[in-house]
Amino acid sequence: MENRGESESAAAGPATSSSIPPPTPASYGRQKTKAQLTVEGYPVEGISIGGQETCVIFPTMSLAFDIGRCPQRAISQEFLFISHAHLDHIGGLPMYVATRGLYRQRPPTIFIPAYLKESVERLFDLHRSMDQSELNHILVPLEIGQEYELRRDLKVKAFKTYHAIPSQGYVIYNVKQKLKQDYLGLPGNEIKQLKLSGVEITNTVTVPEIAFTGDTMADFILDPDNADVLKAKILVVEVLQLFTNMVNLSSIVIAAIQL
Ligand SMILES: [Zn+2]
């Protein structure tokens, strides 16, 4: 799938209590009607122009992978995952945080490769010193292999990708509690009694839903630590010159892989 323009479809974002309403799709100005891409039940929006801007958005999960130049639709996403520090992937970061602050939206949670922590903190400090803004956000440096619980039913894990500078991708997992085999078929009241008596009646099951690589060479596929990446229902891979007639263009490939 190639998506070389920002999708303008509407999707719900976090509520705002601001007197300055966040822009709605109808207020963006000139609009083109474009069918919304849905993969494995997830609406997907985004922009990918090689060397200029990458931002892939899953609005129903309120998350964005990389921020590009901060396209309008990214602002309402509460979670942001940065793959690496090339400007076409991270350039819009201060604008993303500032604009959420302007609309009085909840401070975003931003995941970055751990080695970027001090640089990103300095970046925000620099902007604060220039315009006295707060730029409130939660910064979460993640080492490769490290996990973080986004919500009770959602977690993320960083994985290694292979690029000219240090980089990492992210796998988003659905986390479910599933009744143990032994108790399947038991009447509801018996299951309730077991639970009340302190018996552990469920197993935690994690299902890789979405994986995003950012810029990478294909080596990530061979990395045994990245097995979950290939098991994800949706794999977003950014590649250069995938097709011979697309010289000097980049494309985003979203492959829906059936489990
Ligand atoms: Zn890059």
From TrEMBL:
Taken from the record, one Pfam family name reads Anti-Pycsar_Apyc1
Low complexity bias: start-end ranges: 8-19
Region called Disordered, residue ranges: 1-32
Q: Which CDD domains match?
A: RNaseZ_MBL-fold
Parts forming coiled coils: none
- Protein name per the record: Metallo-beta-lactamase domain-containing protein
Organism for this UniProt entry: Zizania palustris
Q: What is the lineage of its organism?
A: Eukaryota, Viridiplantae, Streptophyta, Embryophyta, Tracheophyta
